[in-house]
Design goal:
Layout (H helix, E strand, L loop, with lengths): L2 H11 L3 H10 L4 H13 L5 H34 L7 H14 L3 H4 L6 H4 L1 H6 L4 H26 L6 H33 L1
Helix pairs in contact: 1-2, 2-4, 3-4, 3-9, 4-9, 9-10
């Protein structure tokens, strides 16, 4: 693992639960790695599983709220100009915007499990002025199982936590499929409701 990632994780580990939340808020390294390391910290007895889940859920939700408010107040031009500083590229915004326009608010939950789209999907939600309460509810509903999964796997792996991505793959794939199915159901229900109104 790259030295700079190890250094960041070492720094975050000294902050305990706040370190997990902060790592997910700034997201300079993938959430899977932060949570996997958090699971390792649980296995060493430094953290409590429930506390780590709460910290992960709060941090992951706040990270998405940052992007939501950036879209809400700054709009697309702001994010195209400054998105690079938070690792959001124009192509990410394009894909996320397409998904949001096609599938509606329900995609806020389902897209959280899909690579490329998951980090940027909050932006079109903000641009579209989606109600903040609804956005937060869908986000928490997706961030919570994600946090539980990777913290649990990190805990089980213990000293081998750095292999989290390989070990998580068989678990993440069903999550992605389930998320797509739920998103499709939501879309069909909304579409049926519109045609019957």
């Amino acid at each position: 693992m790259a030295d700079y990632i190890s250094s960041i994780l070492e720094f975050l580990s000294h902050l305990g639960y706040f370190g997990i939340a902060l790592g997910l808020m700034i997201e300079i390294i993938p959430s899977e790695i932060v949570l996997g390391y958090g699971g390792y910290m649980i296995s060493q007895g430094h953290l409590n599983f429930i506390g780590a889940v709460i910290a992960g859920t709060i941090g992951g939700t706040i990270a998405q709220l940052f992007l939501y408010w950036a879209g809400y107040y700054g709009g697309r031009p702001f994010l195209e100009k400054y998105g690079k500083y938070i690792l959001i590229k124009k192509k990410h915004i394009d894909v996320a915007e397409h998904w949001f326009e096609k599938y509606g608010a329900g995609v806020i939950f389902s897209a959280r499990f899909i690579p490329v789209v998951r980090h940027a999907i909050s932006i079109p939600a903000g641009i579209a002025k989606m109600p903040a309460g609804k956005f937060t509810l869908y986000t928490v509903a997706a961030v919570l199982p994600w946090s539980i999964l990777f913290l649990y796997l990190g805990k089980v792996l213990g000293n081998n936590w750095s292999h989290i991505k390989e070990v998580a793959h068989p678990y993440v794939l069903p999550l992605i499929i389930a998320a797509i199915v739920l998103g499709a159901i939501y879309f069909l229900v909304k579409r049926t409701k519109k045609t019957t109104d």
